[in-house]
Amino acid sequence: MDLEGAPAIADNPIKRNSWKAVLTLAYQSLGVVYGDLSTSPLYVYKSTFAEDIEHSDTNEEIFGVLSFVFWTLTIIPLLKYVFIVLRADDNGEGGTFALYSLLCRHARLGALPNCQLADEELSEYKKDGSAANPRNRIGSSLKSALEKSKLLQKALLGLALIGTCMVIGDGVLTPAISVYSAVSGMELSMEKEQHQYVELPVTCAILVSLFALQHFGTHKVGFIFAPIVITWLLCISSIGVYNIFRWNPLVYQALSPYYMYKFLKKTRRGGWMSLGGILLCMTGSEAMFADLGHFSQLSIQIAFTFVVYPSLILAYMGQAAYLSKHHSLETDYRIGFYVSVPEQIRVPVLAIAILAAVVGSQAVITGTFSIIKQCSALGCFPKVKVIHTSSRIHGQIYIPEINWTLMLLCLAVTIGFRNTKHMANAAGLAVITVMLVTTCLMSLVIVLCWHKNALLALCFIFFFGSFEALYFSASLIKFLEGAWVPIALSLIFLAIMYVWHYGTLMKYQSDVQNKVSIDWLLSLGPTLGIVRVRGIGLIHTELVSGIPAIFSHFLTNLPAFHQVVVFLCIKSVPVPHVGPEERFLVGRVGPKGYHIYRCIARYGYRDIHKDDVEFERDLVCSIAELIRSEKRGSSVDVMEEVEDDDERMVVIGTTSSNLEGIKLCEEDEEEEARRSDEVRTSEAVVKSPERLRRRVRFIVPESSHIDEEAQAELMELMEAREVGMAFILGHSYVRAKRGSSFIRNIVINYGYDFLRRNSRGPSYALCIPHASTLEVGMVYHV
């Protein structure tokens, strides 16, 4: 049947199902993506009128603020993010680092020190046309300048890191201001003396509970997130419609841009400074792009355009309509969300607002975990413990160290400020800085990745950048009134990221400079000058070519070494995901008689690293597949590598992805005996404490024809696997050499060394048996 020729969508089950899936994703995105954005009406008007401007009888201020809110929501979240930025995905993933990764691939900037030409052959690397050159002269010149200039590369990395640090700062500030603003509604239902002793403890209790429940993962309570946000949006939009018809049906006239002009003309400097509160109406817009990997572009566009956007506009219009008829408020609460809520439903609305604030905070915290994992995978943040809280939902992670750090910082901000004014100033600067970074990176994406005219990129950065720069200046002027917090947090995290990235780069360069040549290995002969004992020696190294210096250290200090030696490199590549069929790069180091192999396991910055027995099985099978493929027409993709040692590498997938490949069957003698004599299972048998031998078999496809030489090598590999693996973890330490500058000494000897000692080791090393592990360290002076 020709599906494309179907006359109507109703007759096409595939299209009908796809629309059903899109609408389902749109529904789910309401609870994950828009929790933060939907709670902004709680504090926008209150923050705007906190100090800089007054609400007068002419209503020029309130109508001007409404006009600014309407056009801000229309230009930034709707036009910029929904219709433009969402298209700049990195193979389905979004966020600041996804844009940076996209630029690194197109301009070949080398975000990671151990990148290879083979990485450019990955299917996801080619999917977005990374190999294509810009079709215009300016784009080609810009690409060439980025590839040649180390200064421009560092500036681009610094820009991405600044945006990342501000996202982390937002993870501290958003829960504080959202929950505090929601709880502040209690002020209208109790005495002032009671309220000041209740508001702060309740806020802190909710925040502690929120962070304490993070280890359960959002999937445990995710089914209630979307209904909460939908209920909240329905609530604020209904209240907005009620206030419009009840108090001022002509409030729609304030949507005209003319009211923005009147507002700035009357308020002047005060109006400009109040923009720092108005910009909070778009807080959470970046989440639409950052959470793109969990949903689809179309689902996010539908949810915002047809649900979130109209609900927010109605909510802001309703508040403005109420305030336009109420100029002298009796309560000290002044201009806020809850004064426009009818008194009869104020308590239920308060409860829904608190739940919505918790949902919005949850999304920001999860996004902070995700971006820190990306930074760590790309070598820009120390290794941290990442716990995957869901086996079904991709991206649901929990990082204990970051979680408790965010909680302490969030409590410190809440207790230190105790008012939405300073929290709003801090959160506003963090939000607008991230948006400015996204605008700058997007202008480069338009030229380098989309291959559009440079004039289009200039128009993009001029139009959106000037709009955001206006808000940025209004936020920055309030440095002493709270805006210093995100700057201080960003400087701290930026220093951590820079020190870790610089130290990691120096360590890798030292490994490369001290690696051993293949000639030295050949001069030792097949025995390597020592006794070769049965078993597999797995040597972890960051090198993707050559022989690590740590191996020569072993040979000169140990009387014996293993029959099979594997140099294992587990590395990240600048793509979000690497398919299982492209997981391993496998090759030989030296002649066949040496039985030395190199295996490079490649992961994307959003991939889950295997840290169990399955990884070992895949590793052994990949070596067996290499041996099988060498003497016949290979069924795997073979490609030449441009390496110093002229190694030939083979792309091999995992066992589950390579259905025609060799399978590994393992069982203990105890299990085999149990199978052969099931009748005696009821008898009590005492086993001797001696170690049980593992029986290993390779299951080769019937269509394979393997010669005697390959069979003998497979038998040796099988016998080595039966004995077991020994894990050699080589640790390289860097120290600043004598005569180095004071700053270099501080960064290397104290900063990087402190981070290295307190960071996690490789993820796979956590489950390695200690009895089978040998750790050796070497010190390099850089």
Automatic annotation (TrEMBL):
Signal peptide: none annotated. Residues 535-781 form the K+ potassium transporter C-terminal domain. Keywords: Ion transport, Membrane, Potassium, Potassium transport, Transmembrane, Transmembrane helix, Transport. It holds the Pfam family K_trans_C. The chain crosses the membrane at residues 62-83, 156-177, 223-245, 270-290, 302-322, 349-372, 423-448, 455-477, 483-500. It is a multi-pass membrane protein. Its main location: membrane. GO terms for cellular component: plasma membrane. GO terms for molecular function: potassium ion transmembrane transporter activity. It is found in: Cell membrane; Membrane. Residues 25-522 form the K+ potassium transporter integral membrane domain. Potassium transporter. Belongs to the HAK/KUP transporter (TC 2.A.72.3) family. This is Potassium transporter.
